[in-house]
Amino acid sequence: MTVALTGGTVLASLDPPALSRADVVVDGGRVTSLGAAPEGATRVDCTGCLVIPGNVNAHMHLYSALARGMPYALQPPANFVQILQRVWWRLDRALDADGVRASALAGGMDALLTGTTTLVDHHASPNAIEGSLDVIAEALDEIGLRSVLCYEVTDRDGPERAVAGVEENRRFLKAGWPLARGTVGAHASFTLSEETLAACAEVARDAGVGVHVHVAEDAADERDAQARFGERVVDRLARQGVLAEGALLAHCVHVDAGEIEAIRDAGATVAHNPRSNMNNSVGRAPVVALGEGVALGTDGIGADMFAETKTAYWRSREESVFASASWPLARLARGATVAGRAFGEPGLGRIEPGAPADLVVLEYTDVTPATDANIPWHWLFGMGAHHVRDVMVAGEMVVADRLLTRVDQEELAAKAREQAERLWERMDEIPAHPFQPEGDG
After folding, report:
1. H or E stretch at 338
2. Which of the chain's termini has less CB crowding within 10 Å, N or C?
3. Verdict on whether the full-model pTM lies above 0.90
4. What is the mean pLDDT of the chain?
């Protein structure tokens, strides 16, 4: 069926920004033309609206979706490692298959309703590893969301679970989900043995994909690498064959000049998560020095990429008055490149003939003129997730008039609340995780 989004203004590209007045014609899951809608096409009136490429979240933790408002009874954490020990490493151990599914549905709903069409997710459920990525893929497929998935391999829960995590990545990479692809997940250098990191690199190399890994989010990661191996985190990843063009390195807050140079030389992508970094008080990533290889993610603080781009810009503006308004849009485009590589779709993140029809319609009333030159300022100081009206993924309208089209979102939310209460009760029985990085005694 041919569908035409008619009468709107089209932001066909984020990097560089390119605006035009055109109808967007979609057929077979792809954009077929920008111009006049053909006779017989099903028309979606977008008069007065802005049609943009769907946002890509380059680093997400869907398993955190049920943590919003979660009660906390332990001693307050005093640093990043304690946040992991007392919050996130308790939550992931409380997850079972039902909790994984509910988290994926709740987080996926949040993504679609805020204009995010692709999630690059990093999953952990050490007591429900086998098949967990299929549970997520099925849940996201149910609501119509595109994703790139991996399991977070780590040694913090023992060697058997580390092996199981490697095998879950290996297995999922051979799966055939229409809207999901795989990569290899690894937690962080400080929870990975040499053998486990090597196994992750091997699976990624054999499958022709990259490793999605946390890098120097906190200084404890660097201290551990130096204490155990006498080298910095990025140097260790390079030695193990992880640092490559397809690698996705989350955070990179505490990398030094030599590591930055190595990341840039490898062509790896850094997923910058400014709101999470601020929330965890870990510092600010050297995004200017890291260059054009930076994408944006939320690290599980919701899925609203409009909010993330604004925070990224304001943080960079705080550092330098010369920070460019177009910079965060270019970082969104880099995230689309990452997802497009996983799907073999170089046009992902653009509205052009042949590109996947992953689009968002914003009911955005521009009270000042919008041009190629000033659309970044509209994005940062005008647009927001509250403007999202319709969302299309692979040519299907999965959000129409602010409602999910494939499922009853009120029923989804009600079931999520039930699973959240169950998850919180299970967490009450789980103590703080005992794992401790080297060099932090």
Report:
1. helix 327-343
2. C
3. yes
4. 97
Task: Round to whole Å and give the CA distance between 288 and 105.
Answer: 35
Angle at 223 between CA 217 and CA 435, to 5 degrees: 75
What residues are paired with 148 via a beta bridge? Answer: 120, 181
107-133 confidence digits (pLDDT tens): 999 999 999 999 999 999 999 999 999
294-296 and 42-45 as β-strands: parallel, antiparallel, unpaired?
Answer: unpaired
Q: Which residues lie below 8 Å from residue 263, measured CB to CB, with a gap of 6+?
A: 234, 243, 249, 252, 255, 270, 290, 293
Burial of 284 per CB tally in 10 Å (0-12, 13-18, 19+):
middle
Half-sphere exposure of 328 (CA within 13 A, CB side): 27
**CA of 390: how far to CAs of 25, 323, 362, 405, 416, in Å?**
15, 31, 7, 10, 23
Domains for the chain: give ranges and CATH numbers. Answer: 3-53+349-404 (2.30.40.10), 55-343 (3.20.20.140)
Per-residue pLDDT at 24: 98
Give the H or E element holding residue 34: strand 30-35
* Average pLDDT value for residue range 241-245: 97
| CA-derived radius of gyration, the chain | 21
3-state secondary structure of 230: coil
E-assigned strands of 158-308?
180-182, 184-188, 211-215, 248-251, 269-272, 294-296
- Residue count (the chain): 441
Closest CA to 393 of 355, 432, 440, 364: 355
**C-alpha–C-alpha distance, residues 9 and 269, integer Å:** 31
Report residue 441's pLDDT band, with 50, 70 and 90 as the boundaries: low
Q: Decide if 159 contacts 146 (C-beta within 8 A).
A: no
Asked if pLDDT for residue 216 goes beyond 90, the answer is yes
Q: Tokens 């930055």 appear where? A: 260
Query: Which CA distances in Å does 78 have to 85, 214, 225, 434?
Result: 11, 21, 22, 15
Question: Shortest CA distance to 236 belongs to which of 438, 83, 57, 433?
Answer: 438
DSSP 135-174: HHHHHHHHHT-EEEE-BEE-STT-HHHHHHHHHHHHHHTT
Q: Are 251 and 263 in contact (CB under 8 A)?
A: no
CA distance 26 to 125: 38
- Extract the tokens encoding 212: 């999605």
SS3 call for 377: helix
Are the CB atoms for 428 and 440 separated by under 8 Å?
no
